[in-house]
Amino acid sequence: MGTKGREMDIWNSLTSVCDEEKQQQQQTQMPDNPSYTRDSRDNKSIDAENKNEYILNNDQQSVVSIDANTSNLDLEIQLKPPIEPFFKKTRVTKFYIFIKTIKYFTWLIAVLMSAKVIFGLCYNYGYFSNNHKVVDNIKMPCQNLSQQWAKPLQLDHGYSESFEITIEEEPSPSPVYTQNLLTYNFGNSWGKPAKFKVVPWDNTTAYNTIYLELKTFVNGTQYDRLLHVFINNITIWRSSTVEPFNRTDIHSRSVKDITKYIKLFKNNKELEMVFQLDNIVTAKLDGVFSVELNVNYYNLTKENYDEQTTESEKFLKDVLLDHVNPYSSPDFLEPLISTQRITPLLYYPHTQIQRPYSHSLKPFIESLDPKNTIKISAEVFLNGNAAEEFWYSNVLDKYAGRFSKQGHELLGHGPMRTLNVYLTTEPPNKSLKSDKGQNPRKLIHSVIPNPTIFTGGISPPLWKPVVSIGAFDLTPILIDLTPYMNELLFNSEKEWFLEFEIASSFDTDSYKETIGENWILSGNLMAWCGDTGKHPLKYLYEIDSNQNSMFKVKAKDDEPDELEQRVESNSSLLTVHRIQYKDTEYFLNTKFHNLLINTQVYKKYGDHQSNHILLVTGTEFEVIDTETDQIVFLGSDDSNWALETTINTIEVDESASELTYKSNISLNYKRNVSLLSCDSEDNVNLYNLQATQIGDSVYTLSPSSNYGSGNSIHSVEVDRTWPWQRKYNRVVIVKDNKAIVDVRT
User: Whole-prediction pTM value?
Assistant: First the structure.
């Protein structure tokens, strides 16, 4: 993935590290996919849930006493001065929130846990497990990669783990079966994914939930890398690796609930699996990723797990809940990217003229029975890469070269990106995009994707051992095609296409909507089957569709060494459908809304930078009785992503080819999904989740090895009531990249 170009451009002019990677990329003729670097000298975080006293760090002899029977935390922390690294003299900033007294720490925890930030799913964190019950049913890969297949990772608990605090936790009952899928070393693996066959556990009635478990290990110098997991060309997980720095060992562990794809395991005797992790190893980029991938099978019942909501078709509320259920497993799956070279990934824009990507729905529709199909949708995995990794901090094109003479090359195309999805009966247009008015496209979805800060993003020490929100689980964007199902299924004489475009502006008269290189896109088409005659909810036809957008830009550039840029983008898409529930008809109004406010300030020719981003996105719907015009139900899925960063260059040592900079960051993410019955005022909160990450770091880019340290505070609060009940709170405090406090309630 990409680096923070504003700092790395100086470093790249002083050293040839990146040149070696670029030469090797050209030899492989693969798309450019650079990345980052990070630190790892820390100890295991401590689970303070059911215990009273811990030695948190043996080298610093820090002691924390916790009374689990009270609501307050009694802590006594004694820290020795940090030991200077043996390889370089490092500038280590003071821990900006240093805990001196019991009262101060109690106040700190109270503030963190009471901040109302709503997210989406849950968390995961735990020790590495070597519970490998099955390892003998893996077939050799389709290509000769046997030298890279490795033994199962024997992970020393003395090492620290990198983890994502917001990843959904594993179920509390132990798995009924564990199966090792892959143990592999990714060295020079660019364009060479691991391909292998797996025989799923044949006791299909013994499980109803499945989780993937991913463990990684890396040492040396390397960028962070994207990774993709495919089953029968179906994308089931997009994640990323940690980025090592300070030349120390880094382990990571993550899990992914893939119950939505459980029918792939139950309906196939053999699975074609692909694990893609494009990595390049050179003399200076010597990090090799050791990977272990397992699948855990669970049998969750009312006796061993929180009672799940039972499916019901007695009330419209239950039908609407089932309609948005993210765990409902589809009966048919088809990859969204059919023009694949190695794996079903698309690098967008895939042509210089940036035409939208078009996918024919004909094969998918022909595989469906109109009398037996009750729901269809698409899911899109996408993220910015290379010049688009930090799209939310890009400047307008005219400012891209403003500070290039001083070594700060700003990236262009502005700080807004939106994914637009269209339905059309026209084949892919061979003319320029300016001719799109001749193409009768129907806009059915529009969303600004949530940014992802990978472990090398901004400053690598900010994300160790707790990685940024979303770095280990890049969740897909769901696009509901059910409202258009009648048009798709009962107009067989027409060939329908789904078109995807990523644009950077709504004001095409003043600003180009083009983007840089590149975005990585994959996804799936999904269909659910059932008796349409008995299914109580039917979409009859579309009544209206309306789109509004606003794009404003303000800039102050009168001083040659300064720049202030503010971009505000606001858009909405409203669709109105007539639906029928049993014998009653309703109007269904669905509104997609996106708000982005971005302010960037540069001083001293880019040596001092600050970026403030507010992103509010969501989907709202209302169900209206056609006879009374009364609102029956209100629903929403809203998220809020806010980021504040400052980056200050401290020193540029040209003789040593080193650049040192200081970073501060505050990241907040909120998500709320709810359904309100207006008649009974019955409010169903599907889930509320809030997460906060605050940190500072000092980092040095050096041709010998990048190094630095960081301090950070991370908190998450989850309250889920559907499809099961769960509450979870956690706070992790990190000093010098070591988790000194880890409290879960």
Answer: 0.80
